[in-house]
């Protein structure tokens, strides 16, 4: 009799890291694999609601209390007072290990495979001790993972004098970066201190896993997948099984559409093309920069839907009233995929978090790249230069980081929505959107990759 197949998924406490793994759960369940998801009490309602139509099991483990620097009652990164507390927050999750170990040993049928977030590196010791294969999920693409690893290994940026001086990435002569395209500690070839030690320790630990699950597809970044699997990740193969957002089932039609959806419908009726503006839930934008964004959008005369849950628009002196005929500001949670899917949405001003990028590609919406943090600058580089599906804003001094003027915002919004370069990237993103949809259907590259991964996992039992 065949051993029952049972996957345990443990996402990091951040919606951007959680949502793709919930979509992975759907793919596994469709293959008749049991799925258990580990989370914490305050993250649990979202997960349970998202998977309410499935047979996935959700188990809540208590999040550590009285952790230095982390206020009690905060169990996700989007609730942190500042992203400067990320390392203490992530480090605190290790205090969950005793409960996690006990839970894992009690589960029946026995867990076949563990998929845990790369920031939960401590789960590797549990997996090794219990003889359970562990796959990691970073929430990054192959491009960013590969380029970061090559730079960390070969340190080509040790030879440049400034943060805006170009250097060539070894093994990829067509890619030129600056230190400003990288986040600390990757931008410092001699980085030391707690944050650098935290990242380096995670990398070392995660290379003990059995592989990396990637929310991407082969046709999008074949060069980087091949390089990782043949040159870097020997024994830690990258498995591209996405776009995972395409695993979501069609949404049931609500009795009454949310106000933003009604507004988009009205724009479509009037023949208006809309730019969607969103910078994620964790971007920290100054009031001065907020004013420039508002001024640029206002002068562009482009219709826009701006999702800005945590921003203070009261400082903008009547902005909402002045643009009310063609602009909508939304402070509530929205279904981003539904917005991108709407027929009148033809551009996305984005922070270039990878979920946002891959969702935009799937819905064939070109991107105006404005990266803020983490690996987003590399994603923006990929979007504009590698894939050709977007344009880029630059700081006043021409750098990829820094203060962006309203003139630049106005100009680039117009170019993406109405200009010749906008037409070029719109054509390219449609081509890639079609490839993305083909990748996940039966026989597509991501479908086959997931089948191959499952076969490999079962040979480890």
Automatic annotation (TrEMBL):
Molecular-function GO terms, alphabetical: UDP-glucosyltransferase activity
Pfam family of the protein (one): UDPGT
Keywords recorded for this protein, A-Z: Glycosyltransferase, Transferase
Listed CDD domains: GT1_Gtf-like
Keyword Glycosyltransferase: yes
Superkingdom in the source lineage: Eukaryota
UniProt-listed Enzyme Commission number(s): 2.4.1.-
Family under the similarity heading: Belongs to the UDP-glycosyltransferase family.
Protein name according to UniProt: Glycosyltransferase
